[in-house]
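Entry: DoxX family protein
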Amino acid sequence: MNLALWIAAGLLAAVALAGGISKTFVPREKLAAAHGGGWTGDVGDGFVLTLGILELLAAAGLVLPAVTGVAPVLVPVTATAWILLMIGAMITHGRRGERAFVALNLVYLALALVVAAGRFGSGAF
């Protein structure tokens, strides 16, 4: 089970890192033109940048605390925060009629739920 939790956390960290890098360093206008990025045209630069930074922090929080042994409880806390972020993403994409992205966000939410439940429940890091 521990290996499955590491794999799930690693996958989520990779997704968070990719999303965080793009939202932090790619101009909002370019993101808005990309498939699935249309929502960025409806919000300000600061909002997109904030989400990008939060995703970069999530990438670190899903892996580094367990790797270093420093405050490993931050892994399930980060996974729980990711669940909330995915709920917001599902609402945003749902309002735009982007069902494929809603489904993808649901997969990420499910992975985060596994990580949160597994790490809160077992305490195995």
